[in-house]
Amino acid sequence: MRTINNTVRRSEPRRGLDFRGTRSSSERLLILLTIGYSGAVVAGASFGSLALGSLAKLIAIPFVICAILTYRRRPNSKVNVVTWCLAGIMVLAVVSYFWTIDQTASLSKASTFIQLFAATSCVGLAMRQLGRRGFPAIAWGLMIGALASAFMVFYAEINHTFVSAASYEYLLERVSAGASDPNDIALSMVITLPVFLVQPSRVIKLLVVPVGIAILLTGSRGGILAAVVMLLSFIFLSFFNKNPRGQRSVRPWQIIVASIAVVVLGSIFLPAKIIARFQSIPSQLTGGTLTNRTILWKAAWNGILNRPLTGYGIGSSPTYEFAHSGYLLVTHNVWLAFFLEIGVFGFVLFLVSFVVAFRGGFRLRADVPWLLPSLVALFAGTYALAWDYNKLLWLLLVLGGYAAAEHRVIHEQLAVLDNVEPTAVSDVNVDNDTRGLSPNGYRGVNARPHP
Length: 451
Prior knowledge:
This protein has one domain. The chain has helices at 25-43, 55-70, 81-95, 103-130, 134-158, 182-197, 202-206, 208-217, 221-238, 252-269, 272-279, 281-287, 293-306, 317-324, 334-363, 371-381, 391-417. The chain is an all-alpha fold. Helix 3 packs antiparallel against helix 15, helix 4 runs parallel beside helix 17 (391-417) and helix 13 packs across helix 15. It is globular and about 60 Å long.
């Protein structure tokens, strides 16, 4: 092993999408498919009535094929714990069919988890193949998907496409782009806000304003609370997230100014009923039922106490809730949903996935500064949503799992690009291809020389 002094100077931002260093057109195709898949899992929530909700599945097919064909195992590569946790959840989902209280729902949901595992595990394969280039590819996909969702929300607002014409008054003019759930649309866009904020381009940073206004138009109180928690965590982390040159990716005042702009513009354009809905947040948190969610949660907890080991079967929560709470609805809490449907073992696997993902986001908080705030938004938002089968949830968790497993290698790759000697990685080998080159084609610090 030999240490090679890196003297390469780069003026462009290191987090931009960079195709240099790719060895073949198949790797370029993998980057494009990674962008497409990550964008589709965000935008797919907004295209229900246009028959484009399965866009992510259509992109997932070539994405899976390309990820498998281009994958080359790296020496000393670490295990992505989240992928194995998802595999365990998939197995539990399948076998729960034999004791479920709703076989039709369990069969459908088990099939969903099999497809989810196939697509999401290939995200991990793609990240291992692309290295540091995988993060900007996914970031671009998330931003494109969020802009597509925001466009659909504005389009729905202009055309008065609300959740249901029959229950227009009850649902308080909440837009439903593509007849989808406004809460799902809102949280999907909230998760992407950190990606916009960390971009070096001011124009891209400003796009957070229309996306933020689109979030307000959905009327999702859970989405607003998730955004507030995420922004507070982002402001706190911005004091510590400095790249090796000592520069912050985003300054606290930028977050505050963007938030004020969204609130001011939103107060101008939002319908009075939506504003009244948001004003009810304090009363709902202190003494309300959160739109009957607390009733669902109480019934789910009683069911967990009755069947803590096996649960009632994957996808069975609506049937259970109808029998015990009177509402034919999902549990509306991802943690209770896993515990109720596949028991304590599924709950523990999901908990481990979140812990590992947060560890990865924390380890790369300076190198990939949007990942940890996005995970915070995901954690805060899913307390009121049943996202157990959501593609975006598992994409972020697997991404965090990859960051936890390979954070030292990724840190060294990015330090090389910044022309800064990495810290605490003296024993790490940058082995992004068989020639020991960094992703941009430069020889990295402590890279293995070509034999």
